[in-house]
Amino acid sequence: MSLKTSELPFKERVERQVHNEIMRRAVVKAQETIGANRQKMVDELGHWEEWREAAKQIRNHVLENLDAYLHQLSEKVSQNGGHVFFAETAEEATDYIRKIALEKNAKKIVKSKSMVTEEIGMNHVLEAEGIKVVETDLGEYLLQIADDKPSHIVVPAIHKDRHQIRKDLQEKLGYQGTETPEEMTAFIRKVIRRDFLEADIGISGCNFAVAETGSLCLVTNEGNLRLATTMPKTHIAVMGMERIAPTFKEVDVLITMLCRSAVGAKLTGYNTWLTGPRLEGETDGPEDFHLVIVDNGRSKILESEFKEVLRCIRCGACLNTCPAYRQIGGHGYGSIYPGPIGAVISPLLGGYQDFKELPYACSLCSGCNSVCPVKIPLAQLILRHRENIAQSGMTPLTERLSIKGFNFANAHPAIWDGSVKIGAKLAGRFIKNGKAPIRAGALAEWTKARDLPQPEGESFRSWFANREKN
Amino acid sequence: MNVNFYVTCIADIVKSGVGKHSVLLLEKLGCNVVFLEKQGCCGQPAINSGYAKQAIPGMKNLVETFEVNDYPIVAPAGSCVYAVKNYPEYFERFGESDWAARAQKVADRFYDITDFIVNVLKVENVGATLTGKAVYHPSCSLTRKLGIVREPLTLLQNVKGLQLLPIHNQQTCCGFGGTFSVKMAEISGEMVTEKVMNISEAEPDYLVGADVSCLMNIAGRLSREGKKVKVMHIAEVLMQNEKGEN
């Protein structure tokens, strides 16, 4: 499964990431910078809550009429001279893309950044055919040369610093320059320019597909997407089936929310609108255009209690505000979709077996809910996962038993009353200077980072009862 | 005014001082405080771990307990208030519509203590005095989930001698998260460590909050680091006068 970025067990991943000083510093800096810029853009736009509501309504409308819009989109793309392929699974999507690559006898493919192609594991499939796939987004390129995995859905190499990047460039590409970002970027730019010129196929994702016109709307900051989608003779765009806007009017709202939420900018450096392949008499653009629309579990999500998550426009604002993501970075989650959005969609797309810990890596602080531009109740959906996991018996026996005991006592007032009174006394007797004589289970976990409370030794209810008597 | 006090399990078992001061404060403000002994926990340890279904009998007990009168119900913890506010949704989801309606009536009577003092009792200055510098921790439940932002601040701003200090990332979660603190101890530990770092930078005398559980978490880390910051629940602060404790 290509969602996975690690084979290590969850706890081990977390342990490693928590001690990864470079990642920790980089993520804190990015969260602070992007967070501050986002807030500036939110304040500057004004009426943010109304914008959020509008964006939510647009996305809900699309989801409620998804079948009709998908039909309209595919008709339009075909009329424009493109080909549409509906892939029910990741395998169907990659099979189709591989088939085209083989038909075109492709030796080299340039890619712009796309999470859905990561999700379906496209690169490996193409590489297995001996095709060279070049990531042309700067962050993705840096990860590709270092055989690393993305740790953020918008800023994939967020976990790396310039020293590491320079080292990678030296080792892999013989770079001799300084570690200034500008110089390193210029170097890469020169290297991949050749790839753009040589590529047989360009592959992109899709931020929004406009059903009315069959156009693709793509936002980038590096301009690489324009080269990737116009220089090669063939362009393949891959999109999650929910990424539709009815008309350009709705795209206006969605792009406004996306750019401000994702990177704290009014707009990205490049807004690219593509409507079909090159037509007769036109001077540029690909000769052949394919749109691969990927389901890969989305239809099932649409029918489930997690439906609202399909509103997501992949801005990453929830990652940039999440205090848990801040501590463990994207690699702690072990999924290409990390953070709050990842804790919701990774188990949906990849199953509980691989991703059952993710919904617990959350304090339910709901900071994500507050920043989501399409008002997805992420914290509530994370909790719904916990319910599913607990109800299907995947939780540890000790947990189930202690919860059972707790619920039993809590439903029987006399037992609860007695337990509270005894508990208060025991706590008072045994907890000294923040330590308890028993260091196992929950007590051991709690005291890893902090002391136990200094108990008062008497329950509130005893105090209140005695007071009434006197 | 007659008022039910909902103590919360953490305050009942380990932090009874928070409960006592809340009661004394409500009485000082003219309330007659009733404590219904049949009350239990709001159920969060089970609910937030995914066992909402199994927590239903406990929820029913709490609803029944408070149906004996129609007084407002006041608690010293936003998170427990928020949990009860969600009862109707759980009952509805598990096919217990009658209970959902009953729970709704009880939930509507639930107040966080600062919300109750400012918006029901219409008191913004309780006449307290506490000299020193304080950092207020706005809990996630109170701030983001219940939308109670201004009330605790207003009450604290009116405490004579108390200077409120801002800190970096003030609204960020302290890392408690109920069972999260023991299930994900590494992540939770890092979060509270960062919170304490930000608090310490302001060099306050007091850390004040309105959620007993967050305070227990932050206090645990402050203690581990040997910091001399006194952790106080807002009810304890509001009961201070010139002579010390009221």
Description:
Chain B: GO terms for molecular function: oxidoreductase activity. Chain B: It comes from Exercitatus varius. Chain B: Residues 3-84, 135-218 form the Cysteine-rich domain. The complex is a heterodimer of chains A (470) and B (246). In chain A, 54% of the residues lie in helices and 10% in strands. Chain A has 23 helices and ten strands. Chain A has a six-stranded parallel β-sheet, with helices on both faces. Chain A has a four-stranded mixed β-sheet with strand order 8-5-6-9, sandwiched between helices. By secondary structure, chain B is α/β, with parallel strands linked by helices. Chain B folds into two domains: 2-119, no CATH class; 124-245, Rossmann fold (3-Layer(aba) Sandwich). In chain B, strand 9 and strand 10 (244-245) form a beta hairpin. The longest helix of chain B has 17 residues, at 185-201. Classes of the chains: A alpha/beta (470), B alpha/beta (246). At the A-B interface, helix 1, helix 15, helix 18, helix 19 and helix 20 of A face helix 1, helix 2, helix 4, helix 9 and helix 11 of B.
Considering the chains and any ligands shown, give keywords for the structure.
heterodimer; A: 470 residues; alpha/beta; Rossmann fold; 23 helices; B: alpha/beta; 2 domains; four-stranded parallel beta sheet; 14 helices; globular
